[in-house]
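Example 3.2
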Amino acid sequence: MAVMDPYPDPFADAPFDPFDPHPEDEVDYYGARASGAEDAAEPIECPEMGPLFVAGGPVQRVLGERYRPRPGQVRMAEQIAALLRKPAHALIEAGTGIGKSFAYLVPAIWSGAPALISTSNKALMAQLWHKDLPTLREIAPRQFSAALLKGRSNYVCQLKLRDMKPKQRKLSSFGDDYERIQAGLERAPSGDIEEMGLPPGMAASVTVDHRSCEGFKCPEYRNCFYEKAKQNAQDADLVVTNHAVLCFNALQMANTALPVRPLLIVDEAHELQNYAIGALSQSLEYETLPALINHPMVRDAADGELRRQAAEYNQAFFAALSQGRPGRFATRWAATGEIQEGLRLFDTLNAISRKLTGFTPEREAEGQFETLQRQALEAVSTVRALSVPEPPAAIRICELIDEQRSGEIGGLKLTYRPLEVQARLQSDLFEAWPRVVCTSATLALGADLTWFQRNIGAYAEGRETALVRIPSPFDYKSHVLIYTPPGLTPAYEGAGEERYLQRLAAEVTRLALASRGRAFVLCTSKRRAGQLFELVAPQLPFLSLIQDGRTSRRDLLDRFQAHGHAVLFATRSFWEGVDVPGDALSMVILDKIPFLPQDDPVLKRQEKLVADRQGNPFNELQLSHAILTLRQGAGRLVRTESDRGVIALLDSRILEKSYGQKILAALPDGRPTRRFEDVQAFFTGT
């Protein structure tokens, strides 16, 4: 039984689709697979998993000497095999080292169950696609097909590539780019820009997002790389995708682009809620509308006065948002009440959209015109939603997205976003799919998985949801020291903050010297990472690296590993999804407990929601966020059975506050200490 949405979706009636521009044309194309959704719940025979993972068994034969049989891996595989035989859902926290990708792939492949596997980022997709699936193909009892599906903007647009070719005859730079793209296509016939190795600027010149795609009217539609990727996904036994594609498909398209299959695996499931929020959010930047208003077809369809008014109201709308900024240092604030400037902009855009309805384009421009119409209708829907008061379970957030343009309305972005998505996930994911397995190394608060179950709405009438925690096989007691120094409490104002920063830098310096580099310094903000880099790096005889936005994460990791004694100062993006096994990473330094900023408008609105239902805002929001973030950051340290190192959490509130013990209990079960001498002894072996 579907659950009522606790907040009305202002975009539910929008005539555009954020995943695919022409869903109405795909009814027949997808109908055969989509109509079989009711069959997906039928029981599926699956062999016993234990014999496949034993010493000398198929998995060890293909992985060789590095493989170690692990009871936790077998337990997870058996759990998935059980729900294949009887439809159910499962939330499985599988600690680091379990080998969870094989634990879910083996029962899916050995049973022959058509499955969709979603991960949180491209690196994990690449691991599944390039390593895990080819390895298992060598020992699988049956042949199986697999497909990789990313979002549209990850593939070369054939129309843009076709239009680029004439230009290369005139400009040598275009010729060089064109040749490089063609060489990339020879390496990666899928048209996947990442597989082709295209740099960002070049990739942007030959890709298109859903708003600009001409869909079925495109003259290159039959050659479209993205459409071919979708077709491959329709036909494949196993599909690898990401959470962004999954959530748009489930929450915005009723599973029409990726029809319901017997098994859905959501890896790195701790990120699912954020992607669901993203799928149900809608944004507008100041510079979005001028491109629409000044499009040649809009200029032909709408008179100059109407377009002038639209530009004027767009300016006034964002000026009104800027005036709501609580202070010159604020980068994020809530938009409240009805915004009259936005409603005037809505009326004008609506008039322009109606003008387009009566416009007849040249025949060869019909596809481009339909795309323009969708963009106009989307703009109307978006501006309306952003101009009126939102329901209690949603918020409108204004953000400064370009710090170099602080004080300019051109640097602003306004977003409507839900605060809770559990009802939508329950109705559109867990009620729709017969078997959903959510897994990650970090899902629980302590031993409690029910809070995660509530947050993602993992309930379905007539089906059980198994809550399973499988501990890591690693010996953290012997291999991990957890160090928290006394007397180091964060300060945020004036001279107190400066003294705190100096003490923090001194602590980071002596820790990095004790570990002989080989350390991540993970900070809760870019500002703090930069400050510590400036103060600490000159004191170290090792290579010091900083995540400054100019160097890719992959390049930073490669340099860090190659040096062997480097120190990397980084922010949130290095707190998860990073794998540095071996001695190159022997210490993870965390600058403080990663509580959310108290003045964050989203947090304030969420706290009110929790308080209104008699919950505990601190425990449900601040403490849960801090624990999961710390667990992810600490999880960077021990990636193999032989890894050892120190987790340094430089926040004495761990020792002084009652919640400190809850945080320590949630971290890997290492040996806690507050003595720096123990850190020195750990690295010297004394």
